[in-house]
Amino acid sequence: MSQGLVIKIVSEYCYVLSDEKIYECKAVGILRHQKLKLTVGDKAEFEILDEINLKGSISGFESRKNLLHRPRIANIDQVIIITSVANPKFASYILNKYLAFVEIIGIKPVLAFTKTDLIDSNDPVIKEINSYKNIGYEIFLINNKITSDSDWKRFKTIFKDKISVFTGQTGAGKSTTLNHLIPGLMEKTQEISKALNRGKHTTTKNELFPVDGGYIADTPGFSSFELSEVNCSELAQSYSFFKINLGKCKFRDCLHLKSAPGCFIKDAVEKKQFPEFIYTDYLKMLEEIKLIEGGRKF
Fold this sequence. Notes:
Blueprint: E1 2-10, E2 13-18, E3 21-27, H1 29-33, E4 43-50, E5 55-61, E6 67-69, E7 72-74, E8 78-84, H2 92-104, E9 108-114, H3 124-134, E10 138-141, H4 150-156, E11 163-168, H5 174-181, E12 208-211, E13 214-218, H6 232-235, H7 240-244, H8 264-270, H9 276-292
Parallel strand pairs: 3-5, 8-9, 8-11, 9-10, 11-13
Antiparallel strand pairs: 1-2, 1-4, 2-3, 4-5, 6-7, 12-13
Helix pairs in contact: 2-9
C-alpha cells in the first residue's frame, strides 16, 4: 500500500501526489459505503493499479487535524491572509474579520501585506501593520514588482513542509502573489475596477500546488466568510492576545465590551497593550453578530 497527498479532486477522480508522481485514483467501495468524502489535503492510502498509466485505488486516509468546509481542504498548517496597503486601500476591518475567523478555527495565521511600493515608510498604515507584529503575529511586507528582495526571500521560507491556504480581500494581489511563487501558474489577474475600487474575482478552482518544499492553495470560497458563522463567545476568544489572557477578566463570559467591569482586554487597550483599531473592529463585529442573532445592540 502506498501513501500520498490528495492535491486535486475532479468529479469522481482524486489526484494523489506520491514520490513525485501524480496518480489518478478512485475511492474503493468501503469508503463510498461509509460515506467518507475525500478532500484536497487528505493523506491517502492507495494501491497502485497501473504504474505505467499512473492509475490507483484509494482505500483510506489518515485522521485529519483540521478541515475547512468552504471550500473543502484538510490538514492546513497556516492561512496566508493577503492584504493590500493601497489600491484598494488598507481595510483593517476586513483583515481583522479574516484574522478572527482563522483563529477561531484553530489554524495559524500569517499576514502578508502587498503593494508596499505604493506607500512610503512614513505612511500611517505602517504603524498599524507593525501593531500586528507587536501582539505576536508573523507579518511580511511584499512588493510584487520586486521579488528578489530580502522580504520575498524570507516569505518563501515559510512554506516548507506545510500546507498553506491563501485568502484575502478582493484585489489585494492574491493571484499575483501566487503567480510569483509558482512560475507558470496560469492564474488570471484582472485590472482593478476603478468604479468599485476593488478587484474582480479571478480564481475559480481549489487545488494544492507544490512550492518551496510545501503546498499552497488558493481558496476562492474562503473569501465569503460571514459573521453568521460564529457566535459572540467564539469571537471573544478569537485573537491570540485574547486567548493567552483567557481567565483574566472578572467574569468568565466577558465579551470585552467598553462597559464590561473588570475586563482585562478593555484595560489592555487603555494601556496601549492591545491596538485600539483592532479592538474597535472587534466591537463592530460583535454588534453585527448580535444583530444577526436577533438581539438588541449592546
